[in-house]
Specification:
The complex is a heterodimer of chains A (299) and B (262).
Chain A: H1 19-22, H2 47-50, H3 52-73, H4 85-97, H5 100-132, H6 134-149, H7 156-163, H8 167-191, H9 195-203, H10 208-245, H11 251-260, H12 264-292
Chain B: E1 3-14, E2 19-31, E3 36-40, H1 47-55, E4 62-67, E5 70-71, E6 79-82, H2 94-103, H3 109-122, H4 138-151, E7 156-160, H5 168-185, E8 188-192, H6 196-202, E9 205-209, E10 216-221, H7 236-261
Parallel strand pairs in B: 3-8, 3-9, 6-7, 7-8
Antiparallel strand pairs in B: 1-2, 1-4, 4-5, 9-10
Helix pairs in contact in B: 2-3, 2-4, 3-4, 6-7
Classes of the chains: A mainly alpha (299), B alpha/beta (262).
Chain lengths: 299, 262
C-alpha cells in the first residue's frame, strides 16, 4: 500500500495516462497543446485529392452543359422548343439590357424578404412558446394542423380579393408558406429537449425563465435552423406561384408570360435565377448552422 | 446530525401506466457530517427514487427528510447531484458545464470562473477545459458531472450510480479518483450503486435496501482504514464484508422473484 490516495495522479506519459483520457477513437478529439496525447500528422494529400468533391462536381456540370448545347445545336427541335445554354445566356443579357429584369428581381426579392422575414419573426417566438406551454399548444393545434395540411396556394384567390394583385397578396402567400415550417420545427425542437438536462437544471435550482434561456433556447437552435431552411423552399414556391396567378411585376410573372408566348429561353433564365436564390439561401443557412454546431464532433 | 430521514414514503408517478407506484416505504436513516454512505439494493428497490427525493426533485408521500434540521422540499444549493448519465449541455464546453450550477449562486463573474476552474483542475481535466462534451470519453464526461456538483460547494454530495455505464477499468480508475477528490473536500456523500464492491470500497457505512418497496434492511460499518488503495478489494476482511452484503441482497432478490411469480 505504498500509493497514497490523496496525491493526484501525474499523467506525464501516455503509459501512465488512464485509458478513459485517450477517448474512444470514434471522434477526433480536440487536443490542447499541453496534452500528453502523441499524434502524428496524416500523410499529405495532393491538390487533386484535396479538392476531389469540388472538381468532380464542376466537371459533371460542365459536361452536362456541353451535352445540352450539343443536343440543342443539332436542332432536332426548334429553338422555341429546346433552347441551348447559349440561347439562355443571350436571353439573360437581353433582359438585363432592357432593365426589365432588374425590376422583376427587385419586386420578387422584396416580396420574399418581407414575407419570409415576417414568417421568421412570428414563427420562432411563437414556436418556442407553443413548445414550452402545452395548454397553448392544445389551443392552437387545430389551426396549425388545418393550415399545414392545406396547400396554402389554394388561398391565393382569397388573398387577391382581400389584398389586390399587388405585392401584398404575394407577401401573404409567402408568409403563410414559410411560417408553418418554421413554427412547427421550432416547436418540435423545444418538445424534444433532453429531459435529463431539464432535470439537471431543476436540481441546481434553476427557475423556469433560466431553464428556458440556458436549455430550451440553445437546445432548439438546430431545429430552428432546419425550420428556416425548409421555410426558404416554401417561400420561393410562394413567390413564383403567387405571381403566376396574377401580378404586375416579378420573376414568376415574367416566366409565365414568356412561357405562354413560347419564349423558352426566358423561362430558363427565370428558372436559373430562382434556383440560384434557393442555393444561396441554403448555403447561407448552412454556414449559420455550422457556426452553432461547433460543439458537434466534426465529421 | 446532518441528513436525517424518518419513515420516508415515496410514490413514484408512472406516466406510462397512469398510476403511482409505491417505491419507498418507510426509509429511516441518519447520515453524519463528513460521512460517506453507500446505498445498495436489488434493482428497482427505490434507491434512486430515494436519492431524487433527497435532492428535492420528488415530493414525499409521508415522513420527513431534513438536512441540518431544515425540511427538504425542493432542490437547493446545499445539495449537489452527480447524475447517472453525464447529462452535460452539449453546446457548452467543460468549463461552461462546470459553471452551470455556480452561475445560479449569484456570485460575481470572476468568482464563478475561478471556482469552475478550480474544480475542473481538481477532477484532472485542466487540459480539456475548452473541449466540448461530445469530444470526451465517458469517464471524462463523468468527471465533468462530478466537478459540476462539487463546484456549487454543497453540504451533501448525492451520487446516483455515476460509474454504472463505464467499462470495468475506467470504473476502477474513477472510484480511486473519487476517493482522492473526496479526501480533499470531505463532503458528506450519499452514493447509490448496485455494485457491492464499489460500495464497500468507497463508503464508511453501507445501507442495504429491501426489495421494492424500499426500506432500510440493514446498515453495515466498513471498518477499513483510509486512504484505501484499490488492492484493498483483495483483502480478506474486505471480502468478508462484501460477502455479507451480497448474501443480504441475494435474499431480497430471491424474495422479489418469489413475490413476482406467486
Amino acid at each position: 500500500m505504498a500509493e497514497r490516495v490523496d496525491e493526484p495522479i501525474k499523467y506525464d506519459t501516455l503509459q501512465n495516462y488512464p485509458t478513459e483520457f485517450v477517448g474512444t477513437g470514434t471522434f477526433p478529439t480536440r487536443v490542447p497543446h499541453e496534452s500528453p496525447l502523441r499524434t502524428t500528422p496524416l500523410p499529405p494529400q495532393n491538390w487533386f485529392q484535396k479538392h476531389e468533391a469540388l472538381l468532380l462536381g464542376t466537371l459533371a456540370v460542365a459536361l452536362f452543359l456541353v451535352a445540352w448545347q450539343g443536343v440543342a445545336s443539332a436542332r432536332i427541335w426548334s429553338r422555341l422548343f429546346l433552347p441551348g445554354p447559349v440561347d439562355v445566356w443571350d436571353a439573360f443579357v437581353e433582359l438585363v439590357k432592357d432593365g426589365e429584369l432588374a425590376t422583376d428581381i427587385a419586386v420578387s426579392g422584396q416580396e420574399f424578404v418581407v414575407g419570409y422575414g415576417l414568417a421568421a419573426l412570428v414563427g420562432i417566438p411563437f414556436g418556442l412558446l407553443l413548445g414550452w406551454y402545452p395548454r397553448l399548444r392544445f389551443v392552437f393545434d387545430p389551426f396549425i394542423t388545418f393550415f399545414y395540411a392545406t396547400p396554402r396556394i389554394v388561398l391565393i384567390p382569397l388573398f387577391i380579393i382581400w389584398l389586390g394583385i399587388g405585392v401584398e397578396s404575394k407577401i401573404a402567400v409567402i408568409y403563410l408558406g414559410a411560417v408553418f415550417a418554421i413554427l412547427i420545427n421550432t416547436m418540435a425542437g423545444v418538445r424534444s429537449l433532453d429531459a435529463s438536462l431539464l432535470r439537471v437544471a431543476r436540481s441546481f435550482g434553476a427557475g423556469d425563465l433560466h431553464i428556458f434561456r440556458t436549455i430550451a433556447l440553445p437546445g432548439s437552435v438546430p431545429f430552428i435552423l432546419t425550420g428556416l431552411r425548409l421555410g426558404t423552399g416554401h417561400a420561393l414556391i410562394g413567390v413564383v406561384v403567387a405571381e403566376y396567378v396574377a401580378a404586375q411585376h416579378g420573376l414568376g410573372r415574367m416566366m409565365m408570360i414568356a412561357g405562354s408566348t413560347f419564349q423558352s429561353s426566358k423561362v430558363f433564365v427565370g428558372l436559373f435565377l430562382i434556383a440560384t436564390a434557393g442555393l444561396l439561401l441554403t448555403y447561407g443557412l448552412q454556414r449559420i448552422e455550422r457556426h452553432f454546431d461547433a460543439w458537434r464532433p466534426q465529421r | 446530525m446532518k441528513l436525517q430521514a424518518r419513515d420516508v414514503v415515496i410514490h413514484h408517478r408512472r406516466q406510462r401506466y397512469g398510476d403511482m407506484l409505491l417505491a419507498v416505504d418507510g426509509a429511516t436513516m441518519d447520515i453524519g457530517e463528513g460521512e460517506f454512505v453507500a446505498i445498495v439494493g436489488p434493482s428497482g428497490c427505490g434507491k434512486t427514487t430515494f436519492l431524487n427525493a433527497v435532492d428535492g426533485l420528488l415530493p414525499l408521500t409521508s415522513g420527513t427528510l431534513t438536512l441540518n434540521g431544515r425540511q427538504i422540499d425542493r432542490p437547493g444549493h446545499d445539495r449537489g447531484m452527480v447524475f447517472q448519465q453525464p447529462s452535460l449541455l452539449p453546446w457548452r464546453t467543460v468549463m461552461g458545464n462546470v459553471m452551470y450550477g455556480v452561475e445560479l449562486l449569484g456570485l460575481p463573474k470572476e468568482e464563478v470562473r475561478g471556482r469552475a476552474k478550480r474544480f475542473v483542475e481538481m477532477v484532472g481535466l485542466e487540459g480539456f477545459a475548452e473541449s466540448y462534451p461530445l469530444e470526451l470519453s465517458g469517464g471524462m464526461q463523468q468527471r465533468v458531472n462530478l466537478a459540476r456538483a462539487l463546484a456549487v460547494d454543497p453540504e451533501v454530495l448525492l451520487l446516483d450510480e455515476p460509474f454504472a455505464a463505464l467499462d470495468a477499468q475506467t470504473r476502477e480508475t474513477m472510484q480511486h479518483e473519487l476517493l482522492r477528490i473526496w479526501n480533499q473536500t470531505r463532503k458528506t456523500a450519499v452514493f447509490i450503486t448496485h455494485d457491492i464492491v464499489e460500495a464497500v470500497y468507497l463508503a464508511d457505512r453501507v445501507i442495504v435496501f429491501t426489495a421494492r418497496p424500499g426500506r432500510v434492511k440493514e446498515i453495515l460499518k466498513v471498518d477499513i482504514p483510509r486512504p484505501r488503495d484499490l488492492r484493498v478489494k483483495r483483502d480478506p476482511h474486505f471480502v468478508e464484508i462484501e460477502t455479507r452484503i451480497w448474501e443480504s441482497i441475494r435474499e431480497e432478490a430471491a424474495r422479489d422473484t418469489l413475490a413476482a411469480t406467486a
